[in-house]
Amino acid sequence: MAASSVTATAFSSSFHGTWGSSIGGEEYSTLVAKTAPSRVRVGKPLRSGPMMGNVNEGKGIFAPLVVVTRNIVGKKRFNQLRGKAIALHSQVITEFCKSIGADSKQRQGLIRLAKKNGERLGFLA
Which chain positions lie within coiled-coil regions (predicted)? Predict the structure, then answer.
């Protein structure tokens, strides 16, 4: 009957604590407090979206003239005039491309080049 006389010490384990304890003996809530942030920050995102700003804003040879004109005329009227000027310039580029036989891809490249040059010169300040 030696097999039936198993003592309680044969089934003992090194676990001496409650079900809420961890291996190191710390409480579960203490571990969670150490790993989880104490406060979750909810606020405005770091970047609100793509910005349509000019990299060279305020730079360029014509930038001071553009800024003074915008201050005199007003921002709304200035943007209307600027839009008309850009549309007219795009039409001139389109007519030029038609006269030399350039395709639409080349025309689009010329319009992009005109925009980059306008940015560098300060027209889009």
Answer: none
Give the dihedral of Cα atoms 93, 98, 102, 105; nearest 10 deg: 60
Token pair of 95 as six digits: 């007519």
Q: What is the pTM of this model?
A: 0.51
Which is higher by pLDDT, 12 or 106? 106
Q: Which residue has the tokens 């943007």?
A: 79
> SS3 for the chain, per residue?
CCCCCCCHHHHCCCCCCCCCECCCCCEHHHHHHHHCCCCCCCCCCCCCCCCCCCCCCCCCCCHHHHHHHHHHHCHHHHHHHHHHHHHHHHHHHHHHHHHHCCCHHHHHHHHHHHHHHHHHHCCCC
Measured CA to CA, the distance from residue 71 to residue 92 in angstroms comes to 28
Q: List, for residues 71-84, the tens digit of each pLDDT value.
A: 999 999 999 999 99
